[in-house]
Design goal:
Helix content is 44%, strand content 21%. α4 packs across α5.
Length: 357
């Protein structure tokens, strides 16, 4: 990493199994995970603009990572300067960012991800889209086309004094196959995700709660074109596309009640971790490369028993590389020992990383 967030220049080496990055809050632990996220998905997990990842008082950043899977070795370099980002894979420039997504599987869990449970439906769609885009390049392309057509449709509504319904119908017909593909893939994804998720949640909570995930979409009851015809009057009145797969949602429940309203913080954290471990399991079976698990401060708000059950669940993931952060080495080291799991330790102090034996 060079001029990336709070790092001037730093190299970090990880082992193939469990890696713990520890240090006080604000030292730069999370920034290391975000650099890995950048190298896999070409963008930050936390900030919307690349310039926000440039170290203060500098004008560029550069991050490089080397990845090894069963099938290939990858060297990925991302350079950002003067509002331009360049991505190189094995010394070849990548033309489109989407062409790289899916080469490296990544699952990132951070405290702010609790908004997936409590926040807007867009965050839950993002969870589905991130999972499916990594494992299915066609899904990423169909999603990109749908979003462009949706922007075009909404922009036309706002600009046209008297929108032409024939033109709107043309846009609808272009969007329909994209919507159908996305809907079908999301539906299959959720059907495969639920049993994995419920098992992980049971493992972490020691069978304490009944949980479920339901995919909510209007396309369950009619086709996309029928939906657009049904909502046309409302769309024309409000000048926006009110229905479609961009309104899909996931409904998370505990004991048949929505988790965002009834769950405790500990239950929500367990829900979140189970959700992303299920995502990792899904990617493991649908991608050529094994996904890397990045767990940022996931043990906050988990009681001692849930922490032990979580680490026991992670213990079964021996084939995967896991990189996690925490403020305390001793607390986790004791639990690692209790589940017979060894770890590679890295301490972060003042934006400097030290390997600890």
């Amino acid at each position: 990493m060079t001029n990336f967030k709070n790092y001037s220049s730093q190299q970090v080496h990880f082992h193939s199994g469990l890696n713990l990055i520890f240090g006080v809050n604000g030292s730069g632990k999370t920034n290391i995970l975000d650099a890995i996220h950048y190298l896999a998905l070409t963008k930050s997990h936390f900030v919307p603009q690349d310039r926000m990842s440039v170290k203060y008082d500098t004008d560029f950043f550069r991050i490089e990572g080397k990845f090894i899977s069963h099938t290939e070795k990858l060297k990925v370099i991302i350079k950002y300067q003067s509002s331009q980002k360049k991505i190189e894979v094995n010394d070849k420039l990548i033309g489109k960012q989407g062409d790289h997504i899916g080469a490296i599987g990544i699952v990132f869990i951070a405290p702010d991800d609790l908004d997936i449970i409590d926040g807007l439906s867009a965050l839950r769609r993002k969870y589905m889209d991130t999972s499916l885009s990594q494992s299915d390049h066609e899904y990423l392309m169909q999603l990109s086309v749908y979003k462009k057509l949706l922007d075009q449709r909404n922009s036309y509504f706002k600009q046209a004094e008297a929108p032409d319904t024939v033109y709107i119908q043309v846009l609808n017909e272009k969007m329909a196959p994209c919507a159908k593909y996305i809907y079908q893939k999301r539906k299959i994804f959720c059907e495969e995700l639920v049993p994995k998720f419920t098992q992980y949640y049971a493992d972490i909570s020691d069978q304490k709660e009944k949980v479920n995930i339901r995919y909510s979409t209007d396309l369950d009851r009619c086709s996309f074109l029928e939906l657009m015809q049904e909502s046309e009057k409302v769309d024309l009145r409000h000048r926006i596309t009110s229905k479609g797969i961009h309104r899909d949602d996931l409904i998370f429940t505990i004991h048949d009640h929505e988790a965002r309203y009834t769950a405790s913080q500990g239950q929500k954290k367990t829900f979140l971790v189970g959700l992303f471990l299920a995502q990792a399991d899904y990617l493991y079976h649908t991608m050529q490369s094994e996904p890397i698990l990045l767990l940022d401060d996931v043990f906050d708000k988990l009681d001692q028993e849930r922490m032990k059950h979580l680490l026991a669940a992670l213990h079964s993931e021996k084939q995967r590389q896991i990189i996690l952060t925490d403020t305390s080495k001793d607390r986790l080291a004791a639990i690692f020992q209790s589940v017979s799991r060894s770890a590679h330790y890295l301490e972060v102090k003042n934006a400097s990383v030290l390997e600890i034996d």
